[in-house]
Amino acid sequence: MPDKVSPTEKTVLRNKTNSPGSPNADDNGVQLKKELGLMDGVAIIVGIIVGAGIFVSPKGVLKNSGSVGQALIVWIFSGVLSLIGALCYAELGTMIPKSGGDYAYISDAFGPLPAFLYLWVALFILVPTGNAITALTFAQYILQPAWPGCEPPYEAVRLLAAVITCLLTAINCYNVKWATRVQDVFTGTKIFALIIIMVAGVWWLCMGHTENFHQPMAGTNTQPGYIALAIYSGLFSYSGWNYLNFVTEELQDPYKNLPKAICISLPLVTVIYVLANVAYFVVLTQDEILASNAVAVTFGDKLLGVMSWIMPFFVACSTFGALNGAIFASSRLFFVGARNGHLPTAIALINVRNLTPMPSLIFLCLITLVLLIIEDVYVLINYVSFVEALFTTLSVSGLLWLRYKRPDLHRPIKVSIILPIIFFIICAFLVTLPCYVTPWEVGVGLIFIFSGIPIYWIFIQWKKKPQWLVLKSHELNMICAKLFMCVQEEKND
């Protein structure tokens, strides 16, 4: 865990690489470079948002909405809410231009302990669980054609998920541009898959198949609890809109490109999602959607005939791109946390040749692989959805608090105060309502959050640590520095 670094170790960890064969030995030192342009930012946001969600979540939205009409309203509402949240995060991201997203904002607004608790939950549950689910979904759809009519063996799925996680980690370790090129390609692929769905749906509609829209509001569920659950399912498909804030320091001209990327990405994704759901509802009945675990595959089986195999293929491509984007962005969160002393110093090291946070990427990969061992890893999602909503609410609360506490702080982007207030009220509603609907999941989530408090006091707040603990931490840092050819980031004064 974080500790003071000895002079000898500091010489190794912060040594500039000026020897021959070190292409990055320049006057700027060893640090993350600004290599992400506007379209890279758009590709990261769209690529992460459009994962497996849009291909499976329509069932959850429809189930809790009760009707086709309300389901479409929920999809539109979820997109608008995500856009409002993203604009609030644009102010946060340009006001606090640090990588790390929520972690950086909570830290500046409320101090180190709440920020560490977010990092604690994100490190061991939120991020690796999401990555594990995405990797398993990819493997499931890739292997499905080899086992027609039945589920692929879980061992085969888990093995392929582990391989793809390691592969994408290696790409991200080697070159930032390679990672963004992978993201660009697979973002285009998944958008193409959704275009196929939309075009096929429009074609089916033009043939006169409007029977599923004769009574669009029939069966609407008006209970607030179920409306909230429907919104949760919708927001799950939009999750990831804040990931570009994790890499603000690597974004070229972030004051312009961050809000531009948000304003391009979120409306684009909302339009695509709504039209894709219209296509689903035109082709499939409510019973068919509710009986399906993968709506896009059921859609393809009914409408595409011999070409139905392309839907599992495109879903796999979609999850592949989403996993790559999540690995790229979330590794920066842990890098920043370690740089601030909330994680072992080894995680804040940068490879001197590739200028990538290699130890952070590898550490995240290892935790993800551990979660792949658990066969019921999907159960974890039920326990962390509440936690994720809670910390998003806390981040936006930080925006409102900083407006009051530090009104003179430079804000290149300053949204109307109405937007964060609306977002805070809606998020507070979504956070508190599950306390009555799913108290067990909420309780487990809170217990895990509070379990981080003693960790914080022992490993971070406690200044007089035992000498053996300090030495072991030094050894870990030195081993990682030598093994991965890494040094600490160098900042220009």
From TrEMBL:
Pfam families: AA_permease_2 (PF13520)
Residue span of region Disordered: 1-28
InterPro entries: AA/rel_permease1, AminoAcid_Transporter
Signal peptide: none
Cell compartments where the protein resides: Cell membrane
GO cellular component term of the entry, any: plasma membrane
Its membrane topology: Multi-pass membrane protein
Family to which the UniProt record says this protein belongs: Belongs to the amino acid-polyamine-organocation (APC) superfamily. L-type amino acid transporter (LAT) (TC 2.A.3.8) family.
Protein name as annotated: Y+L amino acid transporter 2 isoform X1
Lineage: Eukaryota, Metazoa, Ecdysozoa, Arthropoda, Hexapoda
